[in-house]
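Database export, one record per block. Field names are fixed; values are copied verbatim from the stored entry.
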Amino acid sequence: MFTSVYRVLKTALISLWRNRGLSLVSTLIMVITLIIISIFLSINIVTNKVTKALESKIDMAAYIKDEATDEQITALKKMLSNRADVLEVKLVSKDEALARWQERYRENEKIRDVVSESNNPLPRSLEIKTEQTEDMETIAKLLSDQTYQTIIRELSYTKSRDMINRMTKLTSFIQIVGWSLSAIFILISIMVIYNTIRLTISARSYEIEIMRLVGASDWYVRGPFIIEGVVYGIIATLIASLLIIISFNLSLPHIKDYLGDFDLGGGYMGVQIWYVVLVQLVIGVFLGALCSITAIKKHLNK
């Protein structure tokens, strides 16, 4: 058995080397396919995690107009605190807003010094926490009513909700584009690998005929072609994984700078590299084996 396996493997490798031009093209097409799938899969994972992180951190701040009186603010805070869907309402004074500003930009003196005790345009605000994230929509509609226009200048929730909506739309767009491109390149890979195996079968037709005449088993005849397709997938996975890891390492610092304080978990911004490599390997081996088996069934039985 071991001798038979060794000979089948040897025949497959010899065939790959003899047709190295076609093998190179097939492998490169599959590499491109796997990279495209991996990139869009990773982007999809990151955007989904960013959206969830935004939703988990979302809160509401009602920024108060400077002309609003302390009595109006106290009445508004009491009204909100008495609601069953509100967990906490905290008043942030101008001094506290200034302290937060200076802490946030402590490493950037130019921005930090724009606001000072003598020149503090930062507004007072009411920070509101609700039982459920969905409850903020109700609170936002309530505070957007004409009744509170003389007190409230702006709601931070609207900006957060708009950002989440944009992220959701971006995720949907990435999914459509990603899977469309992936499907196109999968079809191209299937066509190229299928024709490579078909040409290999045609080139070895005389040798295959002799093996059949001397009583070679179906595995001995067909095995090298199946292994050849699987090898395409394995080599393509190795190359694609290496390129993906390099690109992740180069882009990770820029992505972290852009996303700021978001904690998306371990790995590369929440993307586990072993998962991406596993997906590449499964797709690569499956495509290679599928193309080989299909070509064998159609052309080897003639």
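Remark 1: Strands lie at 60-64, 86-92, 125-130, 152-155.
Remark 2: Residues 59-132 form a domain with the Alpha-Beta Plaits fold (CATH 3.30.70.3040).
End of record.
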